[in-house]
Every structure is written in C-alpha cells, then in structure tokens.
Amino acid sequence: MKNEKAVVVFSGGQDSTTCLFWALEQFSEVLAVTFDYGQRHSQEIDHAKRIAETLGVTLQVLDMGLINQLSANALTRDSIEVEEQKDGPPSTFVPGRNLLFLSFAAIYADAFGARHLVTGVSETDFSGYPDCRDTFIRSLNVTLNLSMDKQFVIHTPLMWLDKAGVWELSDELGAFEFVQTETLTCYHGIPAAGCGTCPSCVLRNQGLQTYLAKKEGAKS
Amino acid sequence: MKNEKAVVVFSGGQDSTTCLFWALEQFSEVLAVTFDYGQRHSQEIDHAKRIAETLGVTLQVLDMGLINQLSANALTRDSIEVEEQKDGPPSTFVPGRNLLFLSFAAIYADAFGARHLVTGVSETDFSGYPDCRDTFIRSLNVTLNLSMDKQFVIHTPLMWLDKAGVWELSDELGAFEFVQTETLTCYHGIPAAGCGTCPSCVLRNQGLQTYLAKKEGAKS
Q1: Beta-carbon separation of A140 and B130 below 8 A
Q2: Which residue range is the domain that position A121 belongs to?
Q3: Any note on cofactor binding (chains A, B) (predicted)?
Q4: Count of structural domains, chain A
C-alpha cells in the first residue's frame, strides 16, 4: 500500500499515536484528523497537534461540538465523575462516537483522494463500547462504501491486541519511547505515565509492565 | 407501532413533510430533527420550523456546519451553479449526507428513548445519490444497531414511490393541500410551486400533473 494515501483518526493518546506510526510505515501519504467536541482537557488537542507536527503529519481538527448537543457524558462534562459502572460501558461513553468519527473521516478522506482509514479501536480492551468491536467496524465499512459508492478500507491494527500488545507494536515500529513520553491517555489530563489511578492509566501501566516483563524474560 | 416514539429527519420539503404526516399516523409520539449546514436558503429552516409548529411537532435544529468544512457543493455555496451533470449525481450532492443525518438522528433518538427513525429517501427518484438507495439504508440500519447495541428501525415510506406516488400518499394521509401550499422544495428558495424550472421543481410539478391526471381518470 506504499503508493496510497491514508487518513488516521487521531487523538494524541497511546493507541492512535501507535496507529499513526503504523500508517506512516504502510502508506506514502498520511493525514490525521482529530475531533474537537469540548473534551474535558483541551490539552488533548494540543497534544495531538504537537505529535502531528513532530512527525510531519498534517492534522485537521474537525469541530464536533454537536456531540454535546446530543448526549451528556463524562468525557465532556466536568461535573460528571469518571468512574467504572457495574453494568454497561463506563460513564465516559459517547454513544455512536466511532460511527461519527469514522463517517466524517471517510468524507474527509474522499475529498482528499484517500480510501484508507486507520483507527485505533480494539475489541480486546473495548470496556463494553459496542462501537469498538470488529463486527461494527466491518458493518460500517460496507455502509461507508454504499453511502458514497467508494471502496474505503478501514484498518484496525490494534483490534486484537491487549495493551501489552500495543506497547509491543509501538516497540516494533521504533516508537516505544516516543509513545511513552509524548502521548496523553489519562482521564485527568496528565501526560505520559499520567495520574496512575484512573482506569485509563491503570490499563496503560499494567500493559506496559506486562510487556516489559515479557521483554525482560525474552532477554534472559 | 401506536405506542412507540419516532424521530423524523425533516427539511420542510415535500418528501419529508409527507413522511412527517405518515409518522404522525403511525406513532404515538413524533419528534423532528433538521440540520443547519449553511443551506443556500436559510428559509428552508424557517419553513421546517413553521410546518413543525403548525403540526404541533417538536423540531430540533442540529448544527452541522462541519459538513461545509469537508466538501464544497452547490447546496451550500452560492457561487456554484445548480445544474445537472452528465455523469454522476447532480452538483447539489453532499457525499455521505444521509449517512451523517441518520447517524445523528439515531443518537438523538436514543437519548429521547425512540427506536424508530423515518426518512424520506427514495430509490426511484434518487438522481444518482448512492445514499438514497435501499441497500445503503439497510446496511446503515445494521451499522447503527451495532454501533450502540440498539434495535433501531429505519422507515422509508417513500423508497419505492415516484413523485406522483408521493403526491398520492400525501392525499391518502389528508395532507395533499398542506404539502402543496406549505412545503419548500425549489433550489431557488421559492415555496409551494416554486420557480418551475429547477430540476427539483420540474420533478415535483411533473409528479403532481401525473397524479392529478390519474385521479381525474379514476373519476371519469
């Protein structure tokens, strides 16, 4: 796919940054899109911009404030606590979020002459989000193609990886240190290792420890 | 479906107004959503509001300005001529428009506790728009359900009707005169019978004449 263009759905977090490195290896031209929907931490977008600039990738910020008009949720309302719920997805869930992100990314890709879309969704760590599952992505791929009479291909390099696997992939791509120091995953807006206690930090750090132990084991 | 709620994608034109009447007959509670994406004629939204108010239906206007960020087209840019193109869809085409409209409508419906979505797309008069075809709608229905783990049902009462058939349906629903005098379909923003020369007016008026001739023939 060396001579083709791709659009990466990008947030500046561990997963989408790893996907950006993956796409830069796979495609001749890569664009990134990120969505501004009143995130709790506007530094998420600043982080995305900084990473894209460092990697020489054009980043398009798309205004998705409409999401807030439609659903209240913890990612965009400071007053709602970030917490794990017993049933269903965590309270950070924006229903249909990946549906919208990928639909807009496809329209953007089409205008740009790209047919490849890259997203960091993962079924393994999907935390109950239905729009991170492989079956949804495949259905959406068909729907996007029918909606515009095109041949989009949605790539999900992390679909079957757990967090340790994502760290391993970033290492294979020569991006391990970059991802460790430059990305922002923490629900409380603290970059790199983060707050260490929110669900996102716990997942990230457990994955890192698991991968480091595996790497150490392979050496000895 | 008398005890269920529905959300109608509504523009104030002939097709979606007929669908609104249809939905009011089918469901116990009906909401309408319309999209503000910098239409050439802002009176399109005023018309939609007026019709909804007359029919006692709550109308939610959703800001979709982002569409303009993504694609240039004749519906939203005054400088581009409205014309039929020899190949492909007319220059009024916004790629993926129905994909976005129905996705947002579904998220809105979900927040409102509705699972029924109604849209006036028609394969018969689809003018080359891929996102008016039945196969797209069915694929999208599955994708929406997978994206949110829901059981949405997309209703397309006009799918297999030509414009004469849409007039006939509005007559059956007791809405014939209302649709004739209150709706706005014309590309040049002239309500009711419109400018008479743009492709949309020609289609609307030819359909009306065909239906009136059929009705007259049935009488004699």
Answers
A1: no
A2: 2-165
A3: Binds 1 zinc ion per subunit.
A4: 1
